[in-house]
Amino acid sequence: MNQLFAAIGVGVCLSLLFLLLFLTYLRKLRRRLSEAKELTAIYERERDLAQQELVQRLERERRLEQEKLQFDLQLSDFEKYASLAQLALGAAHEINNPLLGIMSHLELELRSAEGEQKEEIEQCLEGVRRISSAIRGLMDYARPDPLTLSRVKLHSLTEHTLAFLAHQPLFSRLELRNCIPTDLPEIVADHNQVSQILTNLLLNAAQATPPGGSITVTAETARSGTAVELRVRDTGTGVPADILPHVFEPFFTTKRGTGTGLGLSITRNYVLRHGGDIQMQSVPGAGTTVRVTLPLRHALQPTPELEEVVA
Ligand SMILES: Nc1ncnc2c1ncn2[C@@H]1O[C@H](COP(=O)(O)OP(=O)(O)OP(=O)(O)O)[C@@H](O)[C@H]1O
Ligand SMILES: [Mg+2]
């Protein structure tokens, strides 16, 4: 009997031990399973991230490829334009020289001509002058003269420019105001080019402003005192919103038959060569303001001991 109890006891103990071992093994198995699940989740997350990155990279490569294609096309266009521009410049130069000869011959003829003949010669002269000024504009745009820097006083330059233009019929019935402070700091710039910038802007303003209107030139320091902002404001017709983005494009004009469309693009070229900036704001029917920012000193040639230029 005792033996039987002992055998049952051993059996129970062994079963309990076995159960304990089995439970421990089961717990380990569960832990490993949950670790494996966590790892799988991490791997899946990493795989998703890698896939996303791959898609982004492919997208980036596709965009770069497209940009490269566009750039190559632009480059070949630029090369074509550059050789065409070179050709056109050569032709313009060759056309301009005989034109000057024709002009002086016509001017001579005009002196002795009378009546109908005089009128015809005047018309020819007008045509030749327009061709010559268009060619000059084209040459200025494509190959502007190098900058000749000097000190420029914007108040007196504007005073002289307005006094010169005021005699022209286009300006005679407009109110012209020079509101530039006399103590505005001088700028170091190409006097001739700044004068052309102002003249082009004043001509455009006068052409857009009906008699009785006004043109005001103002200026103040800008860019924390390192530049000046020159503004030419008119009370003219203004520029429609769909035209505004095109006004600085070469040959863009709404003055068919009278304008070449080079005035503002040459002006912009001059401004950019000075390290400046030009913008146009306009309200159709109310007027236009052109803002030109010019640095006080030219970035490439800070020349403090320049001769003072009296405009
Ligand atoms: N102050 C302004 N008011 C209204 N429109 C303007 C003004 N300035 C420029 N524009 C518009 O911008 C266009 C381009 O001007 P831009 O000076 O380049 O050429 P243009 O005056 O037509 O010809 P060009 O100056 O060669 O005689 C003009 O045709 C005109 O439509
Ligand atoms: Mg113009």
What's the quick description here?
The protein is an alpha+beta fold and 311 residues long. It is built from 6 helices and 7 strands. The C terminus is likely disordered.
How are the SSEs placed, and which strands pair?
Layout (H helix, E strand, L loop, with lengths): L1 H111 L2 H28 L6 E4 L1 H12 L3 H4 L2 E4 L8 E4 H18 L5 E9 L4 E8 L28 H11 L3 E7 L3 E9 L16
Parallel strand pairs: 2-4
Antiparallel strand pairs: 1-3, 4-5, 5-7, 6-7
Helix pairs in contact: 1-2, 3-5, 5-6
The chain binds adenosine-5'-triphosphate (ATP) and magnesium ion.
The site of magnesium ion (MG) has 5 residues, from α5.
Instruction: Give helix % range.
Output: 55-70%
Total number of helices: 6
Order of helices and strands: HHEHHEEHEEHEE
Question: What's the CATH topology name of the largest domain?
Answer: Heat Shock Protein 90
Low-confidence stretches: 302-311
Full CATH superfamily name of the largest domain: Histidine kinase-like ATPase, C-terminal domain
CATH architecture of the largest domain: 2-Layer Sandwich
Overall geometric form:
elongated
Cα-based radius of gyration, to the nearest Å: 39 Å
What does this structure look like?
It is a single chain. This protein is of the alpha+beta class and 311 residues long. The protein has 2 domains: 1-143; 149-295, 2-Layer Sandwich (Heat Shock Protein 90). It contains 6 helices and 7 strands, in the order H-H-E-H-H-E-E-H-E-E-H-E-E. The strands form 2 sheets. The chain has a 5-stranded mixed beta sheet. The protein has a two-stranded antiparallel sheet with strand order 1-3. A hairpin with a 4-residue loop joins strand 4 (214-222) and strand 5. Helix 1 (2-112) packs antiparallel against helix 2 (115-142). The longest helix has 111 residues, at 2-112. It starts with a helix and ends in a 16-residue tail after the last strand. The site of magnesium ion (MG) has 5 residues, from helix 5. The site of adenosine-5'-triphosphate has 20 residues, from helix 5 and helix 6.
